[in-house]
Amino acid sequence: MESQKKRQAAYMKKNLLDQGYLDEQFAHLEELQDAANPNFVEEVVKSFYTDSARFIRNIEVALENGPYDFTKLDNMMYQFKGSSSSIGARRVKRQCSMFQECCNARNIEGCRNTFQGVKQEYATLKTKLETYFQMEK
Known about the structure:
- This protein is mostly helical.
- The protein has six helices and no strands.
- The protein has helices at residues 2-18, 24-32, 40-64, 70-87, 90-104, 108-136.
- The longest helix has 29 residues, at 108-136.
């Protein structure tokens, strides 16, 4: 039973990589995990969840009412993108870049629309990673 769960987890990770949810950075994180710190990757990802919740709340507030500070929005998304990059969240990172392009164009509707995409990709990845970590145990 144990080895079947491990095979399922390996298959799921391969799918997450193949489908573009994750990139090679996630594999690099896993290389850092060892017997001395067997939950390293999960702990890093949980920290990402905490940071992400804060970034999402701050961006939501900044998008609520004008006047809109596109520099501030871009900076907040830059931080979220960096956090996403640190765990290899490829699709989230791509949506963050699209949001930043809208900031550079000073397109508030584009920002709102792409922010929905950021939140969707984040929520999808979070659900998939939570399942993956359950299989790993």
